[in-house]
């Protein structure tokens, strides 16, 4: 048997590998166009105090921005893990309340532990366009220079915290 | 023959489709036909991110409505189609474009089947030619030729 006769088999195996990897990919996850880009700079109102908030306020540290809504089921599901994350580490999480009513959002927060340093409000979704938000929940990972380094689409769970978020936060300490 | 009960059931079943036909589009008014054309052309070319495999013109999703509203707003502010496409592309990536640009990834996707086909044909021809050549050279054939 020569190496040449094994070539078709090798090719077939390669193809099989490509298909196997593709099976695991979720076509519903849209990769963010903003990775390694500066975070949008518009000033948004805070939910509870109506004070202006700008992503510039967060320069100098790594932080997370978690997009949520009171009408979103998956947000309820991830909330406990966010609370754990905020108590476990000293990373600042900014809540981004997306397409919600102010009363419903503040009620939602008052009924639970609040993992957010601040919550900003986008009742119409007008700011969401600049962030490339297309659903809730989404979580942005932003570095100390205000550059978006990652985006997690869908609810956060322990696996995501351990494999994505903690490594991101720890990089800062190095 | 349809019984009255059947008629009634069919009426109700059809009625279920009624809201669909109304919900899809909010009505926009334009100042010129060119703007209107530009708008309808653009929303056909943007892909909806949540419903997938639907453009934002056909989609009922809230995000699609937002993107239509933004497109309308930009059309009315006299942005060119290219600028609007660029704006959407910056925020939502190539995913939003129904005609994505040629990048390494898309080129691989489009060209690899063709290359594979050309390669296979070349391989096939090569084999056929070789086997014919071998037949001519094989001692068995030579014998057969001598006999005749």
Sum up the structure in keywords:
heterodimer; A: 174 residues; alpha/beta; five-stranded mixed β-sheet; 5 helices; 7 strands; 19% strand; B: 148 residues; mainly alpha; flat
Task: Please give the number of β-strands of chain B.
Answer: 0
- Outline the biggest β-sheet of chain B: none
Per the principal axes of the C-alpha atoms, what is the gross shape of chain B?
flat
Shape of chain A: elongated
Low-confidence stretches of chain A: none
Q: Encode the helix/strand succession of chain A as letters.
A: HEEEHEHEHEEH
Q: What helical percentage do the residues of chain B reach?
A: 55-70%
Oligomer classification = heterodimer
Largest β sheet strand count, sense and barrel closure of chain A: 5 strands, mixed
Q: How does the helix and strand content of chain A classify structurally?
A: alpha/beta
User: How many H/I helices of chain B?
Assistant: 7
Write the element-wise H/E pattern of chain B from the N-terminal end onward: HHHHHHH
Tell me the β content of chain A: 15-25%
Distinct helical segment count of chain A: 5
Beta-strand proportion of chain B: under 5%
Name the structural class of chain B: mainly alpha
- Mean pLDDT level of chain B: 84
Q: Unreliable runs of chain B, pLDDT <50, ≥5 residues?
A: none
Taking strands numbered 1, 2, ... along the chain, how are they ordered across the largest sheet of chain A? 5-4-3-6-7
| Gyration radius over CA of chain A | 20 Å
Integer average pLDDT of chain A: 92
